[in-house]
Amino acid sequence: MDQNEALNRLREGNRRYVSGAIEQKDFGPRREELKSGQHPFATVVACSDSRVVPEYIFDVGLGDVFTVVSAGNVVDKVGIGSVEYAVGHLHTPLLVVLGHEKCGAVKAAYHNHDESNITAIVKKLAPSIKKAKKGGNEEEELDKAAVFNVKAVMRKLKKSPIVKKALDEGRLKIVGMKYHLDGKVEVVA
Ligand SMILES: [Zn+2]
């Protein structure tokens, strides 16, 4: 599968998810198939939010997407390493950074929430908050910050030598997306 086919598969899956026409999954035979190895067609960096489940949102099955999940879809060394494994060793042709509407982590960062290890997430989001927070409407600024964060994570991932090499060689496409809680995924970068 090439990059555009992979992207189309996610788009079509999201259309099915929104319309309620999701495909029947027969996990038994697929589990058997996957015993010999995994060949996911996309790596998805997503938020831990329980409403944002990549496999549901894109109507994909077992073995289809390699997910890297954290609150606020931010990445640290472990997150970037996970993406590098998927891109460099599993050769996924598509890398998606998926932000979303009404993200609790983005909101926590907006209000400078400082508590235990949550602060580490807030710090990662801080530059995007700073860019979006101009004393205007909070909801609008939160929305903007979520998109800025998607772009910031994309920039960070592009700095990985493994990701950069795959992009330079045309083996990988990177796309930024935003999930709306009504079900729709929008391409934002
Ligand atoms: Zn979130």
Morphology call: globular
- CATH class descriptor name: Alpha Beta
How many strand units?
A: 5
Which radius of gyration do the C-alpha atoms yield? 17 Å
The proportion of strand residues reads 15-25%
Through-space gap between termini: 22 Å
- Which small compounds were modeled alongside the protein? zinc ion
* Helix and strand composition category: alpha/beta
Q: Mean pLDDT, as a whole number?
A: 98
Number of domains: 1
Name the helicity range: 40-55%
CATH topology: Beta-carbonic Anhydrase, Chain A
Write a short abstract of this structure.
The protein is of the alpha/beta class and 189 residues long. The protein has helices spanning 3-19, 27-34, 54-57, 77-88, 104-110, 118-132, 138-158, 161-168; strands at 42-47, 65-70, 94-100, 173-179, 185-187.
Characterise the protein shown here.
- By secondary structure, the protein is an alpha/beta fold.
- It has one domain: Beta-carbonic Anhydrase, Chain A, CATH 3.40.1050.10.
- The chain has 8 helices and 5 strands, in the order H-H-E-H-E-H-E-H-H-H-H-E-E.
- It has a 5-stranded mixed beta sheet with strand order 2-1-3-4-5, sandwiched between helices.
- The two termini are 22 Å apart.
- The structure holds zinc ion (ZN).
- Zinc ion binds next to helix 5.
- The site of zinc ion (ZN) has 7 residues, from helix 5.
Topology:
Layout: H1 3-19, H2 27-34, E1 42-47, H3 54-57, E2 65-70, H4 77-88, E3 94-100, H5 104-110, H6 118-132, H7 138-158, H8 161-168, E4 173-179, E5 185-187
Parallel strand pairs: 1-2, 1-3, 3-4
Antiparallel strand pairs: 4-5
Helix pairs in contact: 5-6, 6-7
The site of zinc ion (ZN) has 7 residues, from helix 5.
